[in-house]
Design goal:
InterPro entries: CDO_1 (IPR010300), RmlC-like_jellyroll (IPR014710), RmlC_Cupin_sf (IPR011051). The protein is built from three helices and eleven strands. With about 180 residues, the chain is an alpha+beta fold. It has a domain of about 120 residues: Sandwich (Jelly Rolls). Strand 2 and strand 3 form a beta hairpin.
């Protein structure tokens, strides 16, 4: 993943961050905060003018992360991920709650469960979800092990809201899982 830094926000992006801020400041559990942020994000998916042309461009080598906003108190960050066909993340989990909304295209998300045996740890695939433009999903650790990929034939763009300072951390990934996958 390559990270691009924050540009001057559009009016629409300012409206989105204001709506997210209102939800995050309610001070609920991580899981409930993720639900509230999903509600705030939905009306902005696919809306013209939210992202600049630069923030909509992909990279042929890897998916690209554009940091759109980092809240001054580090309570949340908003990023746009741009995926060309077939690009994907490694299997990973997160440092905090996360909400994703598909702005353009479609993404699939393969969930995994971590298991232990006498031979060592391994992953078992769980549900596979495909989200299309306008659809959201959210979660809070633990139980957030997954792989995300562009499952379409064109560019996919998703907006991710993390309950962490991505400007400081550089990523929301807590751990990458390089374990065997057992059906």
């Amino acid at each position: 993943m390559t990270t691009m830094r924050i540009e001057q926000p559009s009016q629409r992006l300012t409206e989105l961050t204001d709506a997210i801020r209102d939800r995050v400041r309610q001070g609920t559990s991580q899981a409930h905060t993720a639900e509230l942020v999903q509600e705030a994000l939905r009306p902005f998916l696919g809306v013209p003018g939210l992202l600049t042309e630069q923030q909509r461009r992909g990279d042929p080598e890897r998916y690209l992360q554009h940091v759109l906003h980092v809240e001054p108190d580090a309570s949340f960050s908003v990023v746009a991920l741009v995926w060309l066909p077939g690009q994907q993340t490694p299997i990973h989990d997160h440092v905090a709650w996360c909400v994703t909304g598909v702005y353009q295209g479609a993404e699939s998300e393969q969930h995994y469960r971590l298991c232990d045996s006498e031979e060592g740890a391994y992953l078992v695939p769980g549900r596979l979800v495909t989200n299309h433009e306008g659809e959201t999903c959210g979660f809070a650790p633990p139980g957030d092990i997954h792989l995300v990929r562009n499952c379409g034939t064109g560019t996919a763009i998703s907006l991710h809201v993390y309950g962490a300072d991505i400007g400081e951390l550089g990523t929301s990934v807590r751990r990458i899982y390089e374990l065997p996958v057992h059906e």
